[in-house]
Design a protein that fits this description.
Blueprint (H helix, E strand, L loop, with lengths): L1 E9 L2 H30 L7 H10 L15 H23 L20 E6 L5 E2 L5 E3 L3 E6 L10 E6 L5 E8 L12 E6 L3 E5 L4 E3 L3 H4 L1 H13 L5 H35 L2 E5 L3 H4 L5 H7 L1 H14 L3 E5 L25 E3 L5 E3 H13 L10 E3 L21
Parallel strand pairs: 8-11, 11-12
Antiparallel strand pairs: 1-5, 1-7, 2-6, 3-4, 4-5, 6-7, 8-9, 9-10, 12-15, 13-14
Helix pairs in contact: 1-2, 1-3, 2-3, 5-6, 6-9
């Protein structure tokens, strides 16, 4: 299993200039490759293969006066920029043909030096190295100071240097886990109903309050956004105000991510099987609840549950989003009419009085237990997630006989 480990790095002023040069060269190679393929399509020429494209925009371009400065950065950085372009085209074509499931993928677009996120990647061919003193040595950049929060479990296969909108630098290592990290088995299983009033309601009756990190920082963000709006476009003060806004948003995102990590680790450690509902987040963010949905971060949280379950030998499954978890009685199985959002508890004709969220969590657990499922719920098992930008394999699960 492949995992990412991200650490903050602190380049010197000279190293920041070298990184900016590498970011620019990778961006130019990506845009040149995209432009070459677009021109070939407009002129009715065959699709430019990966090898021909690399030869044209890297090898031959270095010999020209207009692109001679491409030789100032590592060749691996330029090759990885083209690899990203090839992956983007592959995803686009697979989306058109139906090989790629989910929402349609747009064709690649040109990168800009004004993009909030800049990144370059070094593979093993670049011979990057973590030195004994804890510094990260990168070709044609130097030895970067890294703040290590934990040791790497194995030798990294690649490292990505990222500069975010707040001006922070990170080193993201990809490592392959070979050791068995399976946790001791436990008997408990849990169904989770995600919501806005309570972030998560568990089938055992416990409720996790929604922290609402974005709402709590709304006043400060509003003040910073107002200050940004008053700055003249193109001025140095406006650039400084942009960084301040980006840092405030990054602080909210980091706090939310840390909280998600702690909660997901606790749930995975205490339960042998975890079941959640497959929510239509893309549709919910187009409603009046969009800000609250973004603030909750359900997709990030469920993704953490998914990969941690695979890493530690737990079971994870998603229940179909059309399963009537709220309207179904968890005791007799009767399905009532639609329950409005303002109704937080309801009584079943069998006499059972249900808390709306706890009842839904219990139904999700019952539907998720494939071996004990007696209601015919459609279960779509989650795939083991690979690092961002890499493909994953979706394994089909044969429904158990009723």
């Amino acid at each position: 299993m492949q995992l990412r480990y991200s650490f903050r790095v602190y380049p010197t002023a000279g190293q920041q200039q070298s990184l900016a040069r590498a970011f620019g060269c990778a961006r130019v190679v990506f845009n040149d490759g995209l432009r070459a393929r677009q021109e070939a399509r407009e002129n009715g020429l065959p699709y430019v293969s990966d090898g021909d494209l690399s030869k044209r925009v890297i090898t031959e371009a270095k010999k020209t006066e207009a692109r001679a400065w491409l030789g100032e950065v590592s060749a691996v950085v330029l090759q990885q920029a083209l690899a990203d372009l090839n992956t983007a085209y592959r995803n686009f074509f697979h989306s058109l043909s139906g090989k790629r499931k989910g929402r349609k993928v747009a064709p690649p677009r040109f990168r800009s030096r004004k993009d909030n996120r800049q990144a370059i990647r070094f593979t093993a061919n670049a011979r990057f190295k973590v030195l004994g003193n804890g510094r990260l040595r990168l070709p044609k950049i130097g030895d970067l100071s890294v703040r290590w929060s934990r040791p790497l479990p194995s030798a990294p296969t690649s490292v990505t240097i990222v500069r975010d909108a707040a001006g922070r630098y990170f080193a993201s290592f990809v490592v392959t886990m070979t050791q068995d990290e399976t946790l001791p088995p436990v008997e408990s299983e849990v169904g989770i109903d995600l919501g806005l009033t309570h972030f998560a309601v568990l089938s055992d009756g416990s409720k996790v309050a929604a922290p609402k990190f974005l709402r709590r920082a709304a006043r400060k963000l509003k003040r910073l956004q107002q200050g940004l709006a008053r700055k003249q476009k193109g001025s140095a003060n406006r650039r400084k105000a942009v960084v301040k806004v980006a840092r405030a948003h990054a602080r909210v995102a980091d706090t939310r991510r840390d909280w998600h990590h702690k909660l997901s680790t606790t749930i995975i450690r205490d339960n042998q099987a975890v079941f959640v509902e497959d929510l239509a987040v893309a549709g919910l963010v187009r409603t009046r609840l969009a800000r609250s949905v973004h603030d909750a971060g359900w997709a990030q949280f469920t993704a953490m549950l998914e990969y941690k379950a695979a890493r530690y030998g737990r079971t994870f499954a998603r229940v179909d989003r059309w399963f009537p978890s709220t309207r179904m009685c968890s005791q007799c199985g009767a399905v009532s009419s639609k329950v409005p959002l303002n109704v937080r508890s309801w009584t079943c004709p069998c006499g059972a009085i249900h808390d709306r969220d706890i009842n839904a969590a219990r139904n999700i657990r019952a539907a998720g237990r494939v071996d004990l499922n007696d209601r015919g719920a459609q279960i779509r098992p989650g795939a083991i997630p690979a690092p961002r930008g890499e493909a994953v394999t979706h394994r089909k699960l044969t429904p158990s006989p009723v």
